[in-house]
């Protein structure tokens, strides 16, 4: 935290002196953490000898308060959120969580580094490498012997993947840590998405290629030029702003039938990296988007709008399809549900270049070693902060974080299976109620397990509980799943294939900076894609080929592709060797 200026220090001294002079006694604070003192009236009974003097007794309890910043957009919850208060009472601590707004992660982290001012907890996102390089984070492995829930959260092999090049661990991954069995019912990652209403309207079609996808959008658009509330229907848009340019970045990889290694295609036979930016299939994808743009199916501001404008557009319910990561546009989904437009929310489709190619849009949960929760050097109570994380990982806290309180938010059957009453389901569907009562949104970026609770019976997330999933659906969602004969939305995509031992390789490139030849190559690739690909996709159809060739020529000239691919291949082989115990 920032040091007090001289003026503030003087004011503080005056205030403390005044408090002393009027006879108030302040208990000496021997803790190094922020303290919040809560005063509660004691229950008393008439005639109690202890209350004979008629004085009101008070019980004081101090709670440790920590600041937390997540370099991603998120949902603020009020300080009096019911479960936030409950967890505070049980753990003796709580976190005041803030989220990224109006800046990129790198910009916000850069401001922190420049000022040397950090919150107690931080999730740096793409700004994590800069935090480590600046020495802003504490080495968690120097403390964790006292905190078994943290130390045993990952296996030794997994922790070794998280270790920085100096041998220390500066972050705790929060996602993709499966306890027991994976219970996922939703796809949270990248895909081509289509509104539920569109699929129902077309009598539950099987959509497997881009041509089929845009043909469906064209036909629905012709039949519904405006929405029920009079807005102009939009065929397609996608996220293209800054680092969120998922529709621009890597669709050629997925459409070719490869999983989300992000930075490259990895040939499973040779374990070598391949640059998907220059393969023939890349041109095929961007040219097909170019055609859709010229056909009037793509929103004209898709490649120039900000992320907030994109979310606002999707939140209207008038965009039939998108290409994005679900977690990136889920706030729009929530807004649509709040408006009663559930049929305008989206499901993923198994689209590839050819129907003979098996889609790999969905992969089993994977460990992201490039990002996680860190404790900064500004934290004055490191051990207390670690104890808070330790407590939040306990079985009791995991249940409270995601299910709430037994008898209030859920019930337990004789077989130990959790379920919700109709009233509890209605509460769970009410976003305003959730914001006031449940804490999973506020504490989502604290480490947690996915899959099952520690009891091995119940899903960690109520939405993934088999007996609850279908009951929690809206009628239009039940109609859609019943029409396809599916039990979950994951069935729209192909079944999981096991992750390769190097997967995902993007978790390695997220640790790079531009000081290396391969890091500089990655930065140049990003710059060129931002410059050239929107230009190619918005060009007239007769100009596309010439722009594409100019882009490819510039790419070959300005990008050190060999340095980039050689480093990726070396990391692939290193991870494979580690997995083999070599």
Helix content: 25-40%
How many helices in DSSP terms?
23
Distance between the termini: 44 Å
At CATH level 3, the topology of the largest domain is D-Maltodextrin-Binding Protein, domain 2
- Oligomer status: single chain
Into how many domains do the coordinates divide?
A: 2
- Shape descriptor: globular
Unreliable stretches, pLDDT < 50, 5 or more residues? Answer: 1-32, 38-58
**Class by alpha and beta content:** alpha/beta
The CATH architecture term of the largest domain is 3-Layer(aba) Sandwich
**Strand segment count:** 15
CATH homology group of the largest domain:
Periplasmic binding protein-like II
Mean pLDDT: 89
Q: What's the CATH class label of the largest domain?
A: Alpha Beta
Layout of helices and strands, plus pairs?
Blueprint: H1 6-21, E1 34-41, E2 58-70, H2 82-91, E3 93-99, H3 105-115, E4 121-123, H4 128-133, H5 148-151, H6 156-162, E5 178-179, E6 190-195, H7 196-201, H8 210-223, E7 234-238, H9 246-249, H10 251-255, E8 265-267, E9 272-274, H11 280-294, H12 307-315, E10 319-325, H13 326-338, E11 346-349, E12 373-375, H14 382-392, H15 395-402, E13 411-412, E14 418-419, H16 422-429, H17 431-437, E15 450-451, H18 466-472, H19 475-484, H20 506-509, H21 517-538, H22 544-558, H23 561-579
Parallel strand pairs: 2-3, 2-4, 5-15, 7-10
Antiparallel strand pairs: 1-2, 4-12, 6-10, 6-11, 8-9, 13-14
Helix pairs in contact: 11-21, 12-13, 21-22, 21-23
């Amino acid at each position: 935290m920032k040091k007090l200026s001289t003026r503030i220090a003087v004011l503080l001294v005056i205030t403390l002196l005044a408090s002393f002079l009027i006879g108030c006694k302040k208990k000496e604070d021997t803790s190094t953490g922020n303290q919040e003192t809560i005063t509660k009236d004691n229950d008393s009974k008439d005639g109690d000898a202890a209350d004979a003097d008629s004085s009101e007794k008070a019980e004081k309890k101090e709670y440790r308060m920590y600041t937390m910043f997540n370099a991603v957009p998120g949902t603020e919850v009020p300080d009096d959120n019911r479960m936030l208060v409950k967890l505070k009472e049980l753990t003796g601590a709580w976190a005041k969580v803030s989220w990224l707004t109006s800046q990129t992660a790198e910009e916000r982290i850069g401001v922190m580094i420049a000022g040397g001012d950090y919150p107690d907890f931080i999730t740096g996102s793409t700004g994590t490498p800069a935090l480590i390089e600046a020495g802003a984070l504490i080495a968690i492995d120097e403390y964790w012997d006292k905190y078994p829930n943290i130390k045993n959260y990952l296996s030794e092999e997994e922790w070794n993947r998280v270790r920085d090049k100096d041998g220390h661990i500066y972050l705790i991954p929060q996602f993709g840590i499966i306890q027991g069995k994976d219970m996922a019912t939703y796809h949270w990652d990248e895909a081509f998405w289509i509104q539920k209403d569109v699929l129902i309207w077309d009598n539950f079609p099987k959509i497997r290629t881009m041509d089929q996808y845009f043909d469906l959008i064209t036909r629905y658009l012709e039949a519904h030029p405006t929405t029920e509330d009079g807005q102009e229907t939009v065929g397609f848009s996608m996220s293209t702003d800054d680092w969120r340019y998922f529709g621009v970045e890597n669709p050629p990889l997925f459409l070719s039938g490869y999983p989300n290694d992000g930075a490259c295609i990895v040939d499973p036979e040779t374990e070598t990296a391949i640059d998907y930016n220059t393969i023939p299939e890349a041109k095929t994808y961007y040219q097909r988007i170019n055609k859709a743009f010229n056909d009037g199916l793509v929103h004209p501001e898709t490649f120039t709008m900000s992320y907030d404008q994109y979310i606002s557009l999707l939140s209207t319910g008038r965009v039939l399809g998108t290409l994005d990561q679900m977690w990136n546009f889920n706030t729009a989904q929530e807004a649509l549900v709040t408006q009663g437009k559930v049929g305008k929310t989206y499901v993923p489709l198994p689209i590839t270049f050819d129907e003979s190619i098996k889609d790999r849009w969905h992969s089993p949960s994977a460990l992201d070693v490039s990002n996680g929760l860190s404790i900064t050097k500004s934290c004055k109570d490191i051990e207390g902060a670690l104890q808070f994380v330790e407590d939040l990982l306990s079985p009791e806290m995991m249940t409270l974080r995601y299910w709430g309180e037994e008898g209030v938010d859920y019930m337990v059957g004789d077989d130990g299976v959790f379920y919700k009453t109709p009233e509890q389901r209605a509460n769970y569907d009410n976003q305003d109620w959730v914001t006031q009562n449940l804490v999973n949104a506020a504490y989502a970026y604290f480490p947690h397990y996915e899959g099952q609770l520690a009891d091995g019976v119940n899903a960690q997330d109520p939405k993934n509980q088999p007996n609850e999933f279908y009951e929690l659906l809206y009628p239009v969602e039940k109609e859609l799943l019943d029409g396809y004969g599916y039990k979950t939305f994951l069935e729209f995509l192909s079944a999981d294939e096991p992750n390769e031992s190097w997967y995902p390789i993007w978790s390695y490139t997220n640790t790079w900076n531009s000081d290396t030849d391969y890091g500089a190559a990655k930065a140049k690739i990003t710059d060129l894609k931002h410059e050239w690909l929107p230009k190619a996709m918005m060009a007239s159809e007769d100009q596309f080929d010439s722009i594409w060739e100019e882009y490819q020529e510039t790419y070959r000239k300005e990008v050190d592709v060999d340095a980039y691919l050689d480093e990726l291949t070396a990391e692939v082989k290193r991870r494979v060797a580690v997995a083999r115990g070599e």
